[in-house]
Design a protein that fits this description.
The protein has 6 helices and no strands. The protein has about 130 residues and is mainly alpha-helical. Helix 4 runs antiparallel to helix 6.
Length: about 130
C-alpha cells in the first residue's frame, strides 16, 4: 500500500528558521507585555491609560508567549508540514484580529500599528503557504 511521504521542516531549511523567528518574535512581544505593559500597549496601537488594565495586558502577554511556544513545540516534534502550515494559517488570525481591534478602537489613523499587525498576518500566511509546498 502506497503511503504519502511525510515532510517536516529541518534546521537545514530556511523555512525552519523563519518559522522559529516568528515564534521567538511573538514570545519577545509577549514578555514585553508582562515586563513593561504600558509601553507595550502603546506600541500595540491601543494605549492603556492606567495600571488597572495590567491584568488584560498580562493576559495578552501570556497568550503571545504560549502562541510562540506552540510553534516551537511543533517544530521540535517534527510535525508534518501540513500540520504546521494549518496551525500557522489559523494563528495568523491573531495578528489579523489585533489589526481589527486597533482599527475598531478608533485608532484607524495609527497606520504603523495597523501595518505591523496586518503585515504579520500576511507574513505568517505566506510562510504557511511556502511550507505547504514542501
Amino acid at each position: 500500500m502506497w503511503m504519502p511521504q511525510q515532510t517536516f521542516l529541518t534546521p537545514s531549511s530556511m523555512l525552519f528558521w523563519l518559522t522559529g523567528l516568528v515564534a521567538i518574535g511573538i514570545i519577545f512581544i509577549g514578555a514585553r507585555f508582562i515586563i513593561a505593559p504600558l509601553p507595550a500597549a502603546r506600541d500595540f496601537g491601543v494605549p492603556a491609560p492606567e495600571t488597572r488594565t495590567f491584568t488584560y495586558l498580562w493576559t495578552k502577554g501570556t497568550r503571545d508567549i504560549v502562541s510562540g511556544l506552540f510553534v516551537m513545540v511543533l517544530l521540535a516534534l517534527k510535525v508534518s508540514s501540513g500540520v504546521l502550515a494549518a496551525f500557522l494559517f489559523t494563528a495568523s488570525l491573531i495578528p489579523f484580529g489585533d489589526m481589527l481591534n486597533v482599527w475598531a478602537s478608533g485608532r484607524e489613523k495609527n497606520i504603523p500599528a495597523l501595518m505591523i499587525h496586518g503585515g504579520t498576518a500576511l507574513f505568517i500566511c505566506v510562510l504557511a503557504s511556502l511550507i505547504l509546498r514542501l
